């Protein structure tokens, strides 16, 4: 938790008054949102935010952060979000918190995207973390079967009581247990083309800057895009 807190607070250095800021989702983004709330209250930071989930919206509202919907802003200056895995070439898996649909919409509308992670999320190649796929309920078993046929080892995401997990859009999540993804860009195109798939958790050529928390402090890596 301390590493996540350290990168969350550090990421707030990138935020200045007048900006429109995308607020990510998850236990690392949580600390960023808390720090934004603190700076607004104690330092007079003046921003408007766009949120990526109901959870983050509720947190931001509780902190008194002014919000707009993604459709109300011409563009977002900076979005700060967590990630589940980041490869050496700056591709990412997101959606461990099932918010990757809104997160991708917000990221695609942002001039700059910053991911904040602890060093356990940095990998050579993506795929150890199960790849989240948001699917519409109707025909979801058919989509599941197609994944199985392809050897993608799908599982429906469930709560502890066995009920199916629902996203903010009331869709299901299927997690693919791929082990290693040799060509994430090609897989993203394949998944984009599958009927019934709403959005997958591969974020290709998306991030600009990564803040990595480790016991030695926070390291900044630039994707140079
Ligand atoms: C939610 C996400 C999160 O950013 C990702 O799961 C990382 O979460 P955490 O910071 O809690 O490890 O993509 O959909």
UniProtKB/TrEMBL annotation:
Active site: 103 (proton acceptor)
Catalytic activity: aldehydo-D-ribose 5-phosphate = D-ribulose 5-phosphate
Chain coiled-coil ranges: none
Cellular-component GO terms for this entry: cytosol
Gene Ontology molecular function, alphabetical: ribose-5-phosphate isomerase activity
GO aspect biological process, one term: D-ribose metabolic process
Gene3D superfamilies xref list: 3.30.70.260, 3.40.50.1360
InterPro entries assigned: NagB/RpiA_transferase-like (IPR037171), Ribose5P_isomerase_typA_subgr (IPR020672), Ribose5P_isomerase_type_A (IPR004788)
Binding site for substrate: 25-28, 81-84, 94-97, 121
Keywords linked to the UniProt accession: Isomerase
Top class in the EC scheme: isomerase
Pathway: Carbohydrate degradation; pentose phosphate pathway; D-ribose 5-phosphate from D-ribulose 5-phosphate (non-oxidative stage): step 1/1
Superkingdom assignment: Bacteria
The family this protein is said to belong to: Belongs to the ribose 5-phosphate isomerase family.
Subunit organization: Homodimer.
Its job: Catalyzes the reversible conversion of ribose-5-phosphate to ribulose 5-phosphate.
Protein name, per record: Ribose-5-phosphate isomerase A
Species for this entry: Jeotgalibaca arthritidis
């Amino acid at each position: 938790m301390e590493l996540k807190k350290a990168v969350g607070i550090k990421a707030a250095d990138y935020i200045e008054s007048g900006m429109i800021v995308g607020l990510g989702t998850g236990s690392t983004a949580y600390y960023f949102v808390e720090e934004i709330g603190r700076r607004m209250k104690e330092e007079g930071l003046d921003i408007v935010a766009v949120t990526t989930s109901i959870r983050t919206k509720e947190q931001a509202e509780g902190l008194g952060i002014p919000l707009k919907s993604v459709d109300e802003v011409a563009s977002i200056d900076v979005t700060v979000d967590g990630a589940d895995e980041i490869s050496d070439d700056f591709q990412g898996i997101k959606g461990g918190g099932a918010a990757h649909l809104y997160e991708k919409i917000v990221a695609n509308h942002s001039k700059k995207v910053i991911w904040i992670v602890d060093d356990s999320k940095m990998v050579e190649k993506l795929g150890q973390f199960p790849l989240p796929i948001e699917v519409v309920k109707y025909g979801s078993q058919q989509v599941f079967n197609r994944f199985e046929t392809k050897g993608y080892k799908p599982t429906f995401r469930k709560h502890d009581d066995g009920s199916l997990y629902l996203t903010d859009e009331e869709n299901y999540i299927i997690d693919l247990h791929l082990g290693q993804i040799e060509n994430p860009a090609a897989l993203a195109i394949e998944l984009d083309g599958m009927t019934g798939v709403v959005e997958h958790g591969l974020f290709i050529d998306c991030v600009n800057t990564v803040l990595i928390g480790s016991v030695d402090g926070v390291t900044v890596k630039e994707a140079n895009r």
